[in-house]
Design goal:
The structure is a single chain. With 107 residues, this protein is an alpha/beta fold. It is built from four helices and three strands. It has helices spanning 9-21, 37-49, 68-72, 81-92, and strands at 2-6, 28-32, 53-57. Strands 2-1-3 form a three-stranded parallel β-sheet, sandwiched between helices. Helix 1 links the parallel strand 1 (2-6) and strand 2 (28-32).
Length: 107
């Protein structure tokens, strides 16, 4: 089971389409939540209880409202920093603003 947690409906739709192109044909639950720590934590905890893979988009910038990373980080047992590095590296080929993102990955 895969959950896509997003702050934007558009990015959730685009991510789901990309996953289908990669033949990830699993059941996908999409949830759009406000950039609020309690809402993000609730969806992450729901997915955790169901042993789901959770992919989040949005809220990874440097603005005060971007609370996704600070909310998710304490919930991880292990960080996968290589995934975060790969995300930034790949995105830098499209936009220099990628260096302003703050991705996180882990278990």
């Amino acid at each position: 089971m895969l959950t896509i947690l997003t702050i934007s409906l558009l990015t959730g739709t685009l991510l789901q389409q990309l996953l289908l192109q990669w033949n990830v044909n699993t059941v996908v639950t999409r949830k759009c939540v406000p950039d609020e720590a309690s809402d993000i934590r609730e969806v992450i905890n729901e997915g955790y209880q169901l042993n789901q893979v959770i992919i989040t988009t949005g809220g990874t910038g440097l603005a005060n409202r971007d609370v996704t990373i600070s909310t998710i980080s304490p919930l991880l047992d292990k960080r996968a920093t290589g995934v975060s590095t790969a995300l930034i590296s790949q995105t830098l080929s499209n936009t220099p603003f990628a260096m302003l993102s703050n991705p996180i990955a882990g278990l």
